[in-house]
Q: What sequence folds into this?
């Protein structure tokens, strides 16, 4: 079974540019979450989408936006890139089991802003 | 951003030893997840806990959801070199808060 896939794996941008990251969830999962992981820290929640609707948003500026498509894949967009946006961006798909909500992560997209 | 407190921050152990780490929060949560992350990869889900007092095992790994619902523990028995990595706890509902991580190194 295919896990969560993300593209691209690596990306280099310069300050002020825009970036789009993509994620395909595990088949059958309707929810996608995005996290930012800065080197040496745990992942920080950015967004969650469920059934194409934004379900939650973390403490990130409006430069960060996302959307979910009818096939449940998702895009994360970041405008006006700053040096501090350099990080590993993780996508997680989830299914709500009888007990709770387990999130499964993709390999991430490594974004470097110069 | 808000994070959970994990301890220890790092540990070096000999192969075959048992490992214990914990995670604490000032808030009550309904779910605790434990992940392992290796360099250049995304976190891999190890164990999920949904009920206070719950004790769950996955091979050599055992995790417990604290009675107070503000903490969780992960134990690894008879460690092997491939256990090396960063272990994260996470708690929440759909919006998960992650711990600061415990970096484990196993000496053969």
A:
């Amino acid at each position: 079974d295919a896990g969560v896939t993300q593209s691209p794996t690596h990306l280099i941008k310069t300050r002020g540019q825009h970036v789009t990251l993509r994620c395909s969830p595990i088949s059958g999962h309707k929810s996608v979450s995005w996290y930012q992981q800065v080197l040496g820290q745990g992942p920080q929640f950015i967004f969650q989408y469920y059934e194409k609707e934004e379900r939650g948003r973390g403490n990130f500026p409006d430069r960060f936006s996302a959307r979910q498509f009818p096939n449940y894949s998702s895009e994360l967009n970041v405008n006006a890139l700053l040096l501090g946006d350099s990080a590993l961006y993780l996508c997680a798909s989830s299914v709500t089991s009888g007990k709770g909500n387990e999130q499964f992560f993709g390999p991430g997209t490594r974004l470097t802003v110069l | 951003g808000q994070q959970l407190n994990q301890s220890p921050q790092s540990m070096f152990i000999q192969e075959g030893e048992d490992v214990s780490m914990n995670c604490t929060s000032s808030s009550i949560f309904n779910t605790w997840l434990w992940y392992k992350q290796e360099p250049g990869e995304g976190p891999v889900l190890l164990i999920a806990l949904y009920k206070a007092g719950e004790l769950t095992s996955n091979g050599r790994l055992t995790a417990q959801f604290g009675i107070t619902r503000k903490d969780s523990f992960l134990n690894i028995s008879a460690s092997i070199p491939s256990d090396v990595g960063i272990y994260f706890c996470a708690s929440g509902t759909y919006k998960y808060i992650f711990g600061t991580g415990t970096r484990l190194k196993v000496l053969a």
Q: What stands out?
A: Residues 48 and 84 of chain B are 20 Å apart (CA to CA). Chain B has a mean pLDDT of 93. DSSP finds no helices and eleven strands in chain B.
